[in-house]
């Protein structure tokens, strides 16, 4: 009985082909798993950041407790931060006009005065709106004192 060497090689090549195919499928599976895990972790981090930001927005509380003017153009507002976290007042609007102040940080449970210049056209009531860096706003109506 003589064995044909070509017949034995065919069996080996089928095994090698199956192993190569298994290696390719396993590599693709690991690649897809890592991409999915990375994307999911990124989405979870984004959701946590958004939730943290919304929690801080809910804890941020401030009010203008008083306003006064020392002249026709110089105004001062007293701002009370009665929330649980520190805030930064980033913008002040008077009747919709941006005053352009530098950001003012207010610690929790602190009362701060902020001064600004604004030229009033008439002696009408001013709507002073303060906006924090997190987007929370508070409006205050003030009738200027005329000299």
Morphology: rod-shaped
Task: Evaluate the radius of gyration.
Answer: 34 Å
Overall tally of structural domains: 2
The chain-level mean pLDDT equals 88
Helix content: 25-40%
* CATH C-level name of the largest domain: Mainly Beta
CATH topology-level name of the largest domain:
Immunoglobulin-like
Give the H and E element order: HEEEEEEEE
Major β-sheet annotation: 5 strands, antiparallel
CATH architecture of the largest domain: Sandwich
Kindly report the name of the CATH homologous superfamily of the largest domain: Immunoglobulins
> Cα distance, first to last residue?
125 Å
Strand content: 25-35%
Uncertain ranges? none
DSSP strand count: 8
Q: Helix count?
A: 1
Structural class category: alpha+beta
List the helices and strands and how they pair.
Elements: H1 5-59, E1 62-69, E2 74-81, E3 87-94, E4 97-98, E5 104-106, E6 110-117, E7 126-132, E8 137-142
Antiparallel strand pairs: 1-2, 2-6, 3-4, 3-5, 3-7, 7-8
């Amino acid at each position: 009985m003589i064995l044909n060497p070509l017949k034995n090689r065919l069996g080996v090549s089928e095994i090698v082909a199956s192993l190569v195919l298994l290696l390719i499928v396993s590599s693709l599976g690991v690649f897809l798993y890592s991409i999915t895990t990375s994307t999911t972790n990124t989405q979870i981090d984004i959701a946590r950041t958004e939730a943290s930001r919304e929690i801080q927005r809910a804890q941020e509380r401030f009010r203008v407790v008083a306003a006064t003017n020392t002249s026709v153009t110089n105004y001062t507002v007293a701002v009370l931060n009665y929330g649980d976290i520190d805030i930064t007042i980033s913008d002040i609007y008077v009747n919709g006009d941006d005053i352009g102040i530098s950001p003012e940080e207010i610690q929790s449970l602190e009362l701060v005065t902020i001064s600004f210049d604004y030229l009033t056209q008439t002696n009408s009531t001013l709507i002073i709106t303060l906006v924090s860096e997190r987007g929370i706003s508070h409006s205050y109506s003030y009738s200027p004192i005329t000299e």
